[in-house]
Structures are given as structure tokens and as C-alpha cells.
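Milestone 3.1: sequence recovery, worked example.
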């Protein structure tokens, strides 16, 4: 069983991306191979970054807690809305706090948008950022356009085509996770 937290990258009031996070967690559980956990940035209230965690001796407790969960993860899923052709500052702040926690981890990216294109601009930028953190954004993505029309508040899909897309996305994420976890285990054995 792979431990894969889902980072919900928005704290905005009335956020629709929460629906997508619930949708992904439900689909991840259905695989029988993933143990998901929601890491809602609204719950963490991370202060603005003054220094990366590894360079601090006075880190806020919630930052230390989040670091432990990220370190333990086999892979991560980031669910984020697109704001002004990018991703929210609160997500960037969270990502910047850490670096070794992301090292050689597969990252699945789910983008949410009220518009037709499902957040593809923020997807491209987020891939660049995760690569800079030494993580591996998987080739598959899951852009969810017109999310309020396609997902109920509890994450249940209104649009049944999302199930097949999510399954394909998760298959790719599991494939990369298996490969990287196996390689890390082999490296530790040598």
C-alpha cells in the first residue's frame, strides 16, 4: 500500500478545488493500493516563508508536522485551482518550505478551473516548480474544467467521464510510484 497525501492547494472561500480533492481521495481508496490523506493548507495555516524548514531551529509546529507527512509519502497528489494563469500563492509558499521532502517523489497534478481548459496554464508552471524541487511530475495530468458543474460538494462526479480519466491518471501515478519505490529500495540495498 502506497502512502500518497493529497495537498489541497487553495484556502479560498467557496473553493471548488476541495470537491476535486475529495473526488481524488475517493478514487485513490478504490484502487486498493493507495492510502491517501488530505493535507488541506487551510488546516495548516503556514506562515509566510522566512526560511526553509531545514535551515530553522524555531520552525512552527504545523510546518514540522507537514514535513513529516511529506517525508513519509511514497508519492504526492497536488490538487490546485488556476488563478490568473498560475497556481495560488499559498501553494507556492507551502512548496517552498520544503525540499528534501520532495526529493525523487512522483507528483500527480490535478488542476481545477471554472473555465473550459481546466487549469492547463497552472499545470505547466507547477510541473516546472516540482522539477526544481527534485520531484518527478508524472506525464499524466487531470485537468478538471468547469469543476462546479462536474463535481458535487462531496466530490461525487456529476460527469461520469471523470471516472475513466481519474483511473488513467492513477494508473500512471501508481506505475511511477512502483518504479521509484523499487529503485529507492534497490539503492538502499547496495
Amino acid at each position: 500500500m502506497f502512502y500518497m497525501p493529497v495537498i489541497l492547494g487553495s484556502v479560498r472561500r467557496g473553493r471548488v478545488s476541495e470537491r476535486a480533492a475529495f473526488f481524488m481521495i475517493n478514487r485513490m481508496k478504490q484502487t486498493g493500493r493507495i492510502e491517501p490523506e488530505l493535507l488541506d493548507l487551510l488546516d495548516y495555516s503556514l506562515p509566510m516563508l522566512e526560511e526553509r524548514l531545514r535551515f530553522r531551529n524555531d520552525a512552527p509546529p504545523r510546518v514540522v508536522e507537514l514535513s513529516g507527512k511529506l517525508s513519509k509519502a511514497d508519492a504526492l497528489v497536488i490538487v490546485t485551482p488556476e488563478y490568473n494563469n498560475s497556481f495560488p500563492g499559498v501553494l507556492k509558499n507551502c512548496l517552498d518550505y520544503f525540499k528534501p521532502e520532495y526529493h525523487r517523489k512522483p507528483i500527480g497534478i490535478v488542476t481545477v478551473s471554472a473555465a473550459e481548459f481546466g487549469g492547463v496554464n497552472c499545470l505547466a508552471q507547477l510541473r516546472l516548480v516540482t522539477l526544481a524541487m527534485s520531484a518527478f511530475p508524472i506525464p499524466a495530468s487531470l485537468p478538471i474544467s468547469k469543476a462546479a458543474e462536474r463535481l458535487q460538494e462531496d466530490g461525487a462526479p456529476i460527469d461520469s467521464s471523470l471516472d475513466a480519466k481519474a483511473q488513467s491518471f492513477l494508473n500512471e501515478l501508481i506505475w511511477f510510484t512502483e518504479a521509484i519505490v523499487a529503485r529507492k529500495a534497490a539503492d538502499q540495498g547496495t
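The chain has a mean pLDDT of 92. The beta strands are 2-8, 34-40, 76-81, 106-113, 136-145.
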